[in-house]
TrEMBL record:
Keywords: Transit peptide. InterPro entries: CAF17_C, YgfZ/GCV_T_CS, YgfZ/GcvT. This is Folate-binding protein YgfZ. The keyword Ligase does not apply. It comes from the Bacteria. SUPFAM superfamilies: Folate-binding domain (SSF103025). It comes from Stenotrophomonas lactitubi. NCBIfam families: ygfZ_signature. The keyword Transit peptide applies. Residues 224-280 form the CAF17 C-terminal domain.
């Protein structure tokens, strides 16, 4: 991001599309631990981690931030939402566990391209009973995420919202954080999406949906593809193919303007890539977002 940021980029506009899902009750952490890819029970209070919900076949349904706010409260921040559907599907696995799922329409998520005031790394700064600050960047690209009551954040004009949302999404991709549209859910394994770069899954904890496939791929070294950041010379969309020398090579998993995360073979030649008929240039991924 440039140094001379527009005022809206440092004033915490809402992040459209970001939704919140609470898991509350004495079994909240145990339930999340059994369903999601990260090691929830090892996460200290007022800390967060990247996590994912996988299908039984080890394909990624959703990638999100998992916040452990209290012994009986886990909060999911879903940038690519549809929390109602996810909550409905998760409810089928509650059985007799003492956990309540709640989609939050009363809270909003906002961001700014500035360093946090108090949060650092995976540590969450809490300013009130429903007001949290998270560090979502690095020294190379500082960002702060805030969660609070809807009325605490003013929505900007439509054009400003769109520009900010695109810049935020592009920053996600620069860090290697996949943003999955509906067409790309249940398509990729967490290894293919590079969630290991974010510490987004565990191969040591107990069972969770898809765990056997994730562990087998990890320990047998069968991951043959991973995400690479591309700059596309022409408009593209998730699901578009990537070619090299006229041969199909991989697929775009996430797109934000002229940036894309492509799932490509770990070993590729040095010749130019194409998306459609237009060239696509490889770019380095930023480090610093692992939690």
């Amino acid at each position: 991001m440039p140094d001379n940021l527009p005022p809206a980029f440092v004033a915490y506009p809402r992040l459209p599309g970001h939704q919140l899902l609470s898991l509350q009750g004495v079994d909240a952490a145990a339930f999340a631990h059994a369903q999601f890819s990260s090691d929830v029970t090892a996460l200290p209070l007022l800390h967060w981690q990247w996590s994912a919900w996988l299908s039984a076949k080890g394909r990624t349904l959703a990638v999100f931030q998992l916040l452990r706010l209290a012994d009986d409260h886990v909060l999911l921040v879903l940038a690519d939402g549809d929390t109602d559907a996810i909550a409905s599907q998760l409810q089928r696995f509650v059985f007799r566990r003492k956990v309540k799922l709640q989609v939050h329409a009363d809270l909003a998520v906002a961001g700014a391209f500035t360093a946090p005031e108090a949060a650092t790394g995976a540590a969450i700064a809490q300013a009130g009973s429903h007001d949290w600050e998270l560090d979502l960047g690095s020294d190379a690209l500082p960002r702060t995420l805030r969660i609070g009551p809807v009325e605490a954040f003013e929505a900007s004009d439509e054009a400003g919202d769109a520009a900010f949302a695109l810049a935020w999404r592009q920053a996600d991709l620069r860090f290697g954080l996949p943003r999955l549209e509906a067409s790309q859910r249940e398509v990729w394994t967490p290894q293919q999406l590079g969630l290991d770069r974010l510490n987004g899954y565990s191969v040591k904890k107990g069972c969770y949906p898809g765990q056997e496939i994730v562990a087998r791929t990890h320990f047998l070294g069968k991951a043959k593809r991973a995400v690479q950041l591309l700059h596309t010379a022409a408009p593209a969309q998730a699901g578009d193919g990537v070619q090299q020398d006229g041969v199909a090579l991989g697929t775009l998993a996430s797109v934000a303007g002229d940036l894309a995360l492509a799932v490509l073979p770990l070993e590729t030649g040095d010749s130019e890539l194409q998306v459609g008929d237009a060239p696509a240039q490889r770019m380095p991924l930023l480090d610093g977002l692992a939690r």
